[in-house]
Design brief:
The complex is a heterodimer of chains A (114) and B (114). By secondary structure, chain A is an all-beta fold. In chain A, 0% of the residues lie in helices and 54% in strands. Chain A is globular. In chain B, strands 2, 4, 5, 6, 9, 10 and 11 form a seven-stranded mixed sheet that branches. Chain B has a four-stranded antiparallel sheet with strand order 1-3-8-7, with no helix packed on it. Classes of the chains: A mainly beta (114), B mainly beta (114).
Chain lengths: 114, 114
């Protein structure tokens, strides 16, 4: 069974600094996709970034980048130049190959301090 | 706007009552799913569907029923509500037309069972 582990229940970062949120995954599949979602206090799920297992480059979307280390089965989210609006819960999730089911980690609560 | 529509946004039920959470999408996505979110647990898959007439159980299916009579709609039925079903429920959809099988989430339903 696939599993997503987020070991940091909570993280604090100063405004304008970079922060890394950890995510490790466990799967025996060769083809899979990794997602990061942001959930602000308002509750909606906001897609941030996607990495496919065969993608050779690390994914980037604006201030978000995904540090993908396939051999170590890690997919850490890096947020550069943190902003107060980045304070939220962040979830890592994985999809196996062409299977649509999405498995989530338990999340990391990020707090950005002024 | 194209997306996933969930109703209601809030609901209070008494133990033993039944109700249906509605989910509709207008993106012609094959896959639809229901998650529940509980503090410290991330999002857990309840039921999913890969097309009209096809449904299957996820990680936490007990106490819930689903059906998929059309591509657009995927209602979740609570047969006899229990306090353990107090949670936030999300519907999500994706399909072969979505970039990187990206998932679109509804805005959530906050359910309280008293």
């Amino acid at each position: 069974a696939q599993k997503i582990t987020q070991t940091q229940p909570g993280m604090f970062v100063q405004e304008k600094e970079a922060v890394t949120l950890d995510c490790t995954y466990d799967t025996s599949d060769q083809s899979y996709g990794l997602f990061w979602y942001k959930q602000p206090s308002s509750g909606e799920m906001i897609f941030l970034i996607y990495q496919g297992s065969y993608d050779e480059q690390n994914a980037t979307e604006g201030r978000y980048s995904l540090n993908f280390q396939k051999a170590r089965k890690s997919a850490n989210l890096v947020i550069s130049a943190s902003q107060l609006g980045d304070s939220a819960m962040y979830f890592c999730a994985m999809r196996r190959g062409s299977n649509y089911k999405l498995t989530f980690g338990k999340g990391t609560l990020l707090t950005v301090n002024p | 706007n194209a997306g996933v529509t969930q109703t209601p946004k809030f609901q209070v039920l008494k133990t033993g009552q039944s109700m249906t959470l509605q989910c509709a999408q207008d993106m012609n996505h094959e896959y639809m799913s229901w998650y529940r979110q509980d503090p410290g647990m991330g999002l857990r898959l309840i039921h999913y569907s890969v097309g009209a007439g096809i449904t299957d159980q996820g990680e936490v299916p007990n106490g819930y029923n689903v059906s998929r009579s059309t591509t657009e709609d995927f209602p979740l039925r609570l047969l006899s509500a229990a306090p353990s079903q107090t949670s936030v429920y999300f519907c999500a959809s994706t399909g072969s037309t979505a970039a990187n099988y990206g998932y679109t989430f509804g805005s959530g339903t906050r359910l309280t069972v008293v």
